[in-house]
Amino acid sequence: MIKQLKIVGNIAALVLLFVTANAAAEDDNHDLHAGDIRPWRAGAEIFVNSTLFEADFGDLSGGPFVTDDPGIDVNIQEGAFTPGNWLRFQPVSQLLYWDGTQWSEAVPNGERIEITDALSNAISFSANSVSESAGVIGEIDSSGGLHTHLSFKIFDASNTPNGSAGAYRIQFKLFESSPQSDTSVSITASPIAIVLNRGLETENFELAVSAADYLDENTVFVAETGALTIKRVKVSGTAYTVKMQYIGNNQFQLVEADEVIDEH
Fold this sequence. Notes:
- The protein is an alpha+beta fold.
- The chain has helices spanning 2-28, 30-34, 202-212; strands spanning 40-42, 45-47, 52-56, 66-67, 72-73, 86-98, 103-104, 112-116, 122-126, 135-139, 147-148, 151-155, 166-177, 184-188, 192-198, 219-222, 227-235, 238-248, 251-259.
- Strands 1, 2, 3, 6, 7, 10, 13, 14 and 15 form a 9-stranded mixed β-sheet that branches. A 4-stranded antiparallel β-sheet has the order 4-12-8-9, with no helix packed on it.
């Protein structure tokens, strides 16, 4: 019994550190979420200042259904790209919708988001599919940099600029290619996610952004119930699936820890 209590205590301590670190990271990265995507290149890999960004269809420049944020601003001090090459983006997953409590693959009124690229092509994200073709962000300048803003627009089922209130998430990978080529010479290891606000109050939108941090990780967070599941965490060489409950003030309480039995 003492050993079991010690193991559970260790899990609780480890998970508490995990959750606290993630909460702190979200606070530290809030400005990054709201700023430009700042990629740089090292060898054949593209790195970015964050993998999650936010934008608002209701911003002053775009109006209720269009925005040109986030922009893309190459960080040439960290690593320039090859002058004359193209910086591009490839959609990697369908459109997701935040209904106020959770992220879902179902949208209320057939919404889709289109990005108009540098060649005036419309790259589309819907709940059922995404464009197979990659979009062009722009041409790398003589210093190895690029700073530009593309247009993001939301449409409803009637093909009219419109959208139900909520948050919408899209994902794509950045890559660099020679002009007119689809073959990458450098690429991001992980997708970049953009969460776009359509008519939510700031507090509700930030909850959607925070929940989006958990979507593709080893964790599942349900905002409606405050339940956090970590699919796999190791303690003293043993893997566990851990369930936590949010109890307020950025604190979680350990509910359950089940040992994961790997099948070989």
